[in-house]
Design a protein that fits this description.
This protein is mostly helical. The protein has one domain: Tetracycline Repressor, domain 2 (Orthogonal Bundle). It contains nine helices and no strands. α5 runs antiparallel to α7, α6 packs across α7 and α8 runs antiparallel to α9. The radius of gyration is 18 Å and the shape is elongated.
Length: 193
Amino acid sequence: MPEIRKPQLVKATMAVIDRVGLHAASIALISKEAGVSTGIINHYFGGKHGLLEETMREILRQHSATIMDSLARLPKEAYQQRIIAIVDGNFVGYQAENQVTKTWLAFWSYSMHEPQLKRLQRVNEKRLLSHLKIELKALLGDDQAEVVAHGIAALIDGIWLRGTLNPQGIDADKARFIINDYLDKQLTFYSKK
């Protein structure tokens, strides 16, 4: 697949999912949106599931790049700021665009039943937890860092899901406030132990 076609097909996939939902997003609609034949999609991606997998890979690449770029600009010792940068990577910019959030939601529902998509979801979850634990271990013990990382990840997922289903979209400031509040309380709680 020429590299120029992949972004075109990813964009078309997200546009069609945004317009009609994943179940109605047929190869015919996606190929029409992208201006290519259905045969090209079937040949290079093996159908709709393969194209959804490539679309999610691109979203995950963008997600990872956003977080890594944010972390690279922060001092290594700015642990709480680095945690918030990880949080922001889930709620601002590309990840908060309507087409991207609807594709994420479709991906989540499909990942329960599709092994390749389930694997991508596990990789994404492990990456998020790893980033959080690295920063949290500098502030807490290993066991506490593990618990707080899972708490922050659950808050990210819950806030993100509610925001995606809300017609006004994701409120990044509110997400940041809620997660900061949780983090502050956890740091205070564990410092008293």
